Amino acid sequence: MKHDFPVNILFWGNVDAGTALIDRHPDTRFIIDHLAILQPRVPPAPAAGPGPTCRKCWDLAKRKNAVIKVSGACTLSREPFPFPDIWDPLARVFDAWGFDRCLWGTDWTRAFAVVNYEQAVEPFLRTDRLSDTERAMLMGGACAKAYGWSPKKA
User: Fold this and answer.
1) What is the pLDDT, as a whole number, of residue 50?
2) What is the pLDDT of residue 117?
3) pLDDT tens across 89-103, in order?
4) What pLDDT was estimated at residue 130?
């Protein structure tokens, strides 16, 4: 990692090519966007819901030079706010990747026709499926680690 600069990558719909790229560059840190899966810009959510679409991202967790953005997860829900069907598939993502390699994001600017900002944030703030430590890592700690960023204290 000569420059220690992460590469953000979006390869939804082409996971095999993205995986091959990550494997060809083991000394480069990759940040995989959108759970590595195609997500809707407008309703409805995929017919299968969030489960089957996340399977491809679980195998990517074996790549230690990659982290994954859990952005747009609420757009995959087949249930209304607060989107309870996202949690079992996300639990498998968290188990595969570890919270220190999962970066949360709303993705509301892309998916505002599906969820607004509040609807994308609240499920993660209020769920009992995350401990306070896991929530802190998912919603900022892992991002700071992945980008090598640390806020200055006033």
Assistant:
1) 67
2) 92
3) 899 999 999 999 999
4) 97
Task: State how far Cα 32 lies from the chain centre.
Answer: 8
**Sheet strand arrangement including 102-105:** 7-9, 30-32, 66-71, 102-105
pLDDT for 44 equals 83
Is residue 60 within 8 Å of residue 15, measured between CB atoms? yes
Q: DSSP 3-state assignment of 120?
A: helix
Regions of the chain short of the pLDDT cut 70: 1-3, 49-55, 153-154
Q: Which helix (H) or strand (E) holds 128?
A: none
- CB-based contact 32:65 (threshold 8 Å): no
The answer to whether 52 and 88 have CB atoms below 8 angstroms apart is no
- Give one DSSP letter per residue of 18-79, joined into a string: HHHHHHH-TTS-EEE-GGGS---SSSSPPTT-HHHHHHHHHHHTT-TTEEEEEESGGGG-SS
| Cα–Cα distance, 133 to 59 (Å, whole number) | 25
Give me the pLDDT at residue 114, please: 87
Q: C-alpha distances in angstroms, 33 versus 7, 56, 129, 154?
A: 11, 13, 22, 32
